[in-house]
Backbone:
């Protein structure tokens, strides 16, 4: 909402969400779609809270937590 929350990590997170959506539309194999769906679920579950120095909503650890980081890397691959 505020500009201070528009950090590179949050942009990376939002971009990962967009790319997953696009990749799912383009995926033809059911197994590929399911794998992408799982990454999307992980990404959504490990969401940053609204603090300037965010923690993960799921883990309670500084965000991006290892699960969010892993999910974002999978999207890029
Ligand atoms: Zn987490």
Residues:
């Amino acid at each position: 909402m505020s500009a201070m929350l528009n950090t590179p990590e949050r942009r990376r997170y939002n971009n990962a969400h967009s790319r997953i959506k696009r990749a799912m539309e383009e995926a033809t194999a059911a197994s590929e779609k399911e794998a992408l769906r799982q990454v999307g679920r992980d990404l959504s579950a490990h969401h940053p809270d609204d603090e300037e120095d965010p923690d993960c909503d799921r883990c309670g650890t500084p965000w991006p937590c290892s699960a969010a980081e892993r999910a974002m890397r999978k999207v890029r691959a």
Q: What stands out?
A: The first helix runs from residue 8 to 26.
